[in-house]
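Q: What structure does this chain adopt?
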Amino acid sequence: MFDRLVNLALKVYGSALTFLAAVIGVIIFLTDQVFYKQSLHDIIRDVVMCITFLSFFIIQKAFNKYTAAIHLKINELVSSHDKANNDVIDVLNKTEAEMKELSKNYKGEVGNRTD
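A:
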């Protein structure tokens, strides 16, 4: 269940709609009258905080795209190799227990390969 929650969070944080909502929230925060009544030091701190906040969503989107590309490339390599175990294709969709079971299969094979 935790894996599903994490996957959902990654999708939500990397979504364009979430970024748009964050931008709207930042604009509302920065246009509030209370914001301009602060000292210059506090205004600078809040602007840096807003930039950092928005950067999180941009970095998450880039990370999701990069990760998807890497997994697609690895799946292509696995599927194109005749001797490869196709159980490892889309391994991210497996549960943690299934991944541990698959890793047990490979621990014994590493030293025994004669390619």
